[in-house]
Amino acid sequence: MSERPARSATLVLAGLVIACGKPVDPSGNEDATFTKASMAGPAPTGDNRPLSADLAVEPVSMLVTFNRLKSADKLQEALNKKPGQFSHIDLDKDANPDPLTVADRPSKDGHAFEIRVRPATGEFVVATMLFDQEWSYLGHYDGVMGGSASTTARPLPAAPLAGAPAPPPAPVVVATPPAVVPSAAPTQVAAGTPAPAPTPAPGAPAVAATPTPTPAVAGAVQAVPAGSTQPAAAAPTSP
Description:
The chain has helices at about 5-20, 55-65, 70-80, and strands at about 35, 100-105, 110-115, 125-130, 135-140, 155. By secondary structure, it is an alpha+beta fold.
């Protein structure tokens, strides 16, 4: 960037500091979490410093205002063209600047871009930059708009974008029913074959089967059981 455009940008930002006040919170007071353009103090250090301290917020605002990068896609492409040029955020500690993403956010004052960082561990909010209706830079939040700051020790997770595809549902696990052992096929019995005697149930007392009386044979003497009062039948004599 040449000296003249840089000087013009500085004058514009200085005018914005005078003309634009801070956004107000729900109670009507100035929002203390909002940092006006060109009013940031010395960059804090340590693990509790905001993520925006490692983001070149003012140069990024110039990309939007003077380079007319007025869409999230165009600004995101410019921020990642040279890794490390606008951001030194390295949340996954791999010694490489993490890629940045940009999301549009509705704003009653004009326009808002939510700058995010996307390391291998997820996606987190860095800052929300506000612009008026004419795309002049107003200031930024160190996190989500009107919310708490996103720090290096506790970065704020980014909310999913509207219209983004939902994550695939978890697979449904169907319980497998226990295997059923098929029963033996019934045995066919040929006609005239006596059916096998039923097998007694385990533990049931055995019942003696009643013997089938044997028919008397001519010329034979039938034995009478002991204790019976019936006389034994005499065999017929031959004439």
